[in-house]
Amino acid sequence: MKKQEIKKLSKDEIMKNINKFKKDLFNFRFQKINSQITNPSKIGETKKIIARLKTILRDKTNV
């Protein structure tokens, strides 16, 4: 998800996406432990997306 895409979302949609990506991150970590992950860089990408979502959410609530 890019920053421009995130800015178009409402607060509720951002919260839903944060929860979805947190679940994905949990699953990626579980796969990493079991050596089943196909693309380990997905973990870092998912963390960055969550950070972007949280940043935009904070900006929307402070405005």
What is the H-and-E element order?
Answer: HHH
N→C terminal distance: 22 Å
Mean pLDDT: 93
Name of the CATH first level: Mainly Alpha
Structural class: mainly alpha
| Relative helix content | over 70%
Number of β-strand runs: 0
Low-confidence stretches: none
Number of domains: 1
Within the CATH hierarchy, at the fold level, what is the topology? Helix Hairpins
Largest sheet: none
As a whole number of angstroms, the C-alpha radius of gyration is 13 Å
Shape: elongated
- How many helices? 3
- Per DSSP, what share of the residues sits in E-state strands of 2 or more residues? under 5%
CATH architecture annotation name: Orthogonal Bundle
Describe this structure in words.
With 63 residues, this protein is an all-alpha fold. The chain has a single domain (3-62), classed as Helix Hairpins, CATH 1.10.287.310. 79% of the residues lie in helices and 0% in strands. The chain has helices spanning 3-7, 11-33, 41-62. The longest helix is centred in the middle third of the chain and has 23 residues, at 11-33. The radius of gyration is 13 Å and the shape is elongated. The two termini are 22 Å apart. The mean pLDDT is 93.
